[in-house]
Structures are given as structure tokens and as C-alpha cells.
Amino acid sequence: MDRSRTELRTATIGAALLLMTLTACGQGEPAAIPEPPADGNVLDLADVLTTSEEQDLSSLIDEHNASTDAARVAVLLVENAGGPIEDYSRDVATSWGVGDEGADNGVLVVADTAERELRIETADGVREQFSDDDAENLITDVLEPTFADEEYTEGLTEAVDQVYLYAEGREPVKEPFDWVLFAWVAGIGVLVVGGIIWWIVAVSRRRRRETDEEIRSAEQSDPELRLTKEQRAAYRTYRWGHRGEDAIRNPAIWLPLYIANPALYSGGGGDSSASGSSYNGGGGFTGGGASGSY
């Protein structure tokens, strides 16, 4: 009888220890914070974007950064954050220094593809315009449906555009326009405006592709030519504003002129020191933003 009780007690203790071990293993360790990307504002550790898609998304962020200081956006895609995505996103945003130093204008968009979780981490300064409710709506209306359909590029592109719109005190156009039901003329007007906006967006993306192709072609022709992130952003801004016959279309020719006179050959019309990078020593990440799943 005593032996049976001893064996039963031993089996019970063993089962309890096994359960504790399995539970601890299930919780896992938080994933290590990766280094920020050496070039660009997008890090795809989950390998869901093509190289071209990653470059286009990073170029879009560069263009926004060159035109406004209202926000600085970075994107991180991981296979497994290894813990609560809120804690992980806040730690990464702080470690990377997303945003401008002293401005607290950083925004980090994170996707955990293993757990199918999403997070928009916002610094305190940018929350004055881009509120937590706005971040939640963006996740619900844009990121969740596109990620569920594996349309990662479409979702991230629209999300980046909307973050900068909100940060500048504007809001994205809501569709459909349910309130336009009674006026046939107003409906035609909406179609015309929509067509114009589509045309502008299409032209903008086409020009960005053309400019990036000019950079790639110049670097292939001259292996020693390597533009920095800031120089790439400045060249894109220059080419956006200079489309005539007198425009310089070769980055190898443009670069020494830009180095000699950045204000003249950036074409930004604003602060000539504006950088395309979103990592400028920013901080102020105290838990703002929103999370979701898909």
C-alpha cells in the first residue's frame, strides 16, 4: 500500500513538473530586437515582400519624409515577436530611434506573420494629430483586410499614406460617399475628382519608378557610384520638380552639382537638410497606438 502511494505521489509530481515545463516553453522568450535596416525604412524579416516591393515602400516613406516633418514612419515585418506585440513594438521603436530627436513624431508599423498580429506604435508627439482611435481605424479598415488576403504591399502602402495624412492634420477620403445620394451632378463631380486623384497617384508612382530606374542604371554603369539614402531622396525630389528638357537625368552628373549646392539641386523648396531616413534619434514611445489581428 505504501509503495503504491509513493508511486502515485511520484507520478503526480512528475506530471506537474512536465506541465510547468510545457507551459514555460509555450510562453517563449521575446524575440531579439533586430538592427534597423542599413538602407531604407522597411525591414522584412518575414520575407513576404519582394525586393522591388520593399524598395518602393521605402521610397514612398522617403518622399513623405522629404516633404513634411509631421511624422517619420518605419515598417517591420517579423515571423514571430515571441511575446506581446505591444511590448515588442515599443522596444523596437525606442531602440531604432524612430522619429526626429525631440519631436516624438515616430510611427512604427509592425506585423507578426506567425501570430497574425498587427501593431501601429505611435510616439507621444504624433498622437496629437494621429490619435489612437485613428490608428485603430487604420488597422481595422486597411491592414486587417489586406493582410488577410495576403495583399501586404497594398495594405502597407495605403497605411503609410494615411499615417502621413493624419499627421499633417488631414484625413483620408471615406468611401463610399453615402451622403451623395440625391444629386446626379454631384455624383458626376465625385467621379471627375476621383479620376483626377487616380491620375495624380498614377503619375506620381510612374515618376518614382522612372527616377529609381535612372539611379539603378547609373549605378550599374559606374560601380563606384553609390548614392546615400539622403542623396537618393534628394534626387527623387529634384526629378519630381524638374521634368523639362533642361533637367539633369543622370545621377552621376547630378551628384557633384548637388554636393556643391544642395539647396539648388534638391528642388525640395524647403529645408535642404531634410532626410529621407525615419531613424533620427526619436523617442516618446509610452504605449500609444493600436493593435489588431488578421
Order of helices and strands: HEHEHEEEHHHHHHEE
Report how far the terminal alpha carbons are from each other. 56 Å
Shape summary: globular
Computed structural class: alpha/beta
Name of the level-1 CATH class of the largest domain: Alpha Beta
Mean pLDDT across all amino acids? 84
Percent of residues in helical segments? Answer: 40-55%
Tell me which CATH architecture of the largest domain applies here: Roll
Tally of separate helices: 9
- The strand count comes to 7
Low-confidence stretches: 15-27, 268-274
Tell me the radius of gyration.
24 Å
Give the domain tally.
2
Major beta-sheet overview: 5 strands, mixed
Strand content: 5-15%
The strands making up the biggest β-sheet line up spatially as 1-2-4-5-7
CATH fold-level assignment of the largest domain: Diaminopimelate Epimerase, Chain A, domain 1
Model description:
With 294 residues, the protein is an alpha/beta fold. The chain folds into two domains: 42-172 and 281-293, Roll (Diaminopimelate Epimerase, Chain A, domain 1); 184-266, no CATH class. It has nine helices and seven strands. The strands form two sheets. The protein has a five-stranded mixed beta sheet with strand order 1-2-4-5-7, sandwiched between helices. Strands 3-6 form a two-stranded parallel sheet. A hairpin with a 4-residue loop joins strand 4 and strand 5. Helix 2 runs parallel beside helix 5 (152-167), helix 2 (51-67) crosses helix 7 (229-241) and helix 4 (132-148) runs antiparallel to helix 5. The termini are far apart. Residues 15-27 and 268-274 have low confidence and may be disordered.
